[in-house]
Amino acid sequence: MSDLRLFSKALLGIYLLFAVIALSTSALCIHTVDQELSREYQSNSEQIAKVIADASVDVLLNRDLSVLQSLVDQYLSIRSIKYIYIADENGDVIVHTFVPQVPAEIVATDRRTTASTHRSLTGIGSVIEVVSPILQGRAGTVHLGMDAGLIGLKIQSAVGREIYLISVLFIGSILLTLLLIGTAARPLHRLLSYQRQLAGEDDGFGLTPAEVTRLLERRDLAGDLARLAQRSPSPPQTNRADPL
Prior knowledge:
single chain, 7 helices, 2 domains, alpha+beta, disordered C terminus, 244 residues
């Protein structure tokens, strides 16, 4: 414990530095993962919507809604897709995957827009709705609702792994710091034992002649103090009168 008190300020500085590095790294990782996953997620969604839009052109021209319904239904096997609906050039929903009907939140919006939007639908949850126009919007639009919760799960998973790694590094750094402190304090313990020997104190932990030689040959602070103690005169012994 005396070693820890001796290096307490150094330990505090090391742990504060590590905490700053850990917090800044975590914040940067969370922001980067969030941005990259969101961008990739929306890009993939837009590609799927475009594929459906391109495949819907001939079907819409023939007004074969049963084939169009089969087309959108097959994409529901993709885990991230919550719903798909296709609106015609007037914004009327002609096919959809909702059960049993299109939610009122969607009915109340302008379905001819091609801008992506975030929605929170009852019974479905938070989604990112991406839109792809069919024939530049003249034949209608394809709308895909992608599960926004999956992004949160992926971010939590990535952050959880990072926190685990940081925790392991933090515990390892504590153990390594204690080991280094013990290594750094060992010459000081030997110096203390040597000074006690010079003072004539016998504490049972005296140095052997070989250890004294190695201590005096050190080219650091412990060696300098040991050589200085060796050259210093012994303190005068005071004779105490025996009590009467």
